[in-house]
Amino acid sequence: MTDQITKLTGLAAILAALSTTPALSQTMDAGWDADMDGALSQDEFATGLGDRGIFGGWDTDTDSMLSQDEFDDGVYGTYDTDASGDLNEAEYGMTDGAAGFWNRDETVDHQAWDVDGDGVILANEFADGWGETGRFGEFDSDADGSLTEDEFTTGIFGEYDADGTGVIEEPELTDVGDDMGDEGFWDV
Q1: Which residues are CB-neighbours of 93 under 8 A, at least 6 positions away?
Q2: Residues 160-174 pLDDT 10s
Q3: Is residue 7 predicted with pLDDT exceeding 60?
Q4: What is the CATH number of the domain that holds 93?
Q5: Which candidate, 74, 40, 37, 41, places its Cα nearest to that of 149?
């Protein structure tokens, strides 16, 4: 009987480890966890995010800074999954749950952003509504009206580091793995 309990306990430990593997492996396989400690430091995260090229893709004037407009357009583009230039209900509904990266701790009535009531949120309607959330200012740590890549990365890191420990570990790491993986929120 003792051998069976020992075997079951060992099997349970193996199954528990395997159940966390997919989220971890997406991030680890991408080489993000340089020291292989099962967590991401801010430096490791900055390297991984930088390798994705998101900041550069949003910096449309290539001045190595994000203006408020570039930031707004970049966020808008993360939701305009069909690149149609407008957010339909399914796309802006994503901000209220499934892909709510930009809305994790907020309750925002995105339907109110549809000023003309036509059922789609145009880029200008989004920019006005998004501007009211103050997120750009939260990322702009030196309050100069633009974001450096470091400010951008630090802001994104802070969104994942929900407990504020300065390290992204489970369960936060699962969010990074899901969002950075194929068809994830940041899939670029």
Answers
A1: 110
A2: 898 999 999 998 888
A3: no
A4: 1.10.238.10
A5: 74
Let me know whether 77 and 60 are in one domain: no
Q: Please name the residues in contact with 150: beta carbons below 8 A apart, sequence gap of 6 or more.
A: 46
Q: How many CB atoms lie within 10 A of CB 181?
A: 18
Write the CATH number for 168: 1.10.238
Structural domain of residue 4, as residue ranges? 1-65+148-188
pLDDT tens digits for 62-109? 999 999 999 989 988 888 888 888 887 777 665 444 445 666 555 667
